[in-house]
Specification:
Layout lengths: L3 H31 L7 H5 L7 E6 L2 E6 L4 E6 L10 H9 L2 E5 L15 H4 L7 E6 L2 H11 L4 E7 L15 E7 L7 H7 L8 E5 L23 H15 L2
Length: 248
Amino acid sequence: MKTKESGKSKWIYGIGRILFILLIFASVGIYIYADDYYRPSVTAQSALQSVQGIEFTVEDGDLVFTPENPVGGVVIYPGGRVSERAYGLLGSKIAGMGYKTVIIKAPLKLSILSNQAAKKYVEEEGLSDWVIIGHSLGGVSAARFTEKNPDKIRALVFLAAYPDGGTDLRDAPFKVYSLVGTKDSVIDMENLEEAKVRLPVSMIEVDIRGGNHSSFANYGVQDGDTLPDIGYNAQQNFVLDVLRDAFR
């Protein structure tokens, strides 16, 4: 004869088994998702090292290039599902200009999960001028960060990116730049245009002739993007030119 207690125990056991199975599936799904991202090229990887006058370190996963006597700082928020290491070449070039350069490592390669990651660097003593760069989805994080922490910001640079609908930078006290390749077939051009109403009228727009969405970093061509007409160095040099203007 079955008692109410034995029936209840079987019910609890059954629910426990279901939850356990769901937990296993969720764990496998998260693992698969976390492992599905754009890897850095050999060129990007080889740039992640100390060279004369520039020290390379890894701080809590963030990639940091520190030149001797830096004259300013730059933080890069990577694009969604792109390894922070793919920005190694760009980061080393920026550091070579005399700027401490930090490339954020985001949880699950999604910087929107760590919008305020740049804060601990920007608040460092000794450096009062910072440029925040956001590539693709990383532009959302860069915009959110600068909106909440405008004091030490010299400029905000969008690389194939724009702020989300909840970010209003029309009265930003810093320079804003927007760089987009003419062969970019990933960015939503309609949203890019719509976002301009939330950005300063003084924003400087740079059209990169022959540039695409992916070549601001070194990880190959992103799904849905177009092959560029210019090389990685040529496209990334536009970023360096903008930084020269921003720190002028």
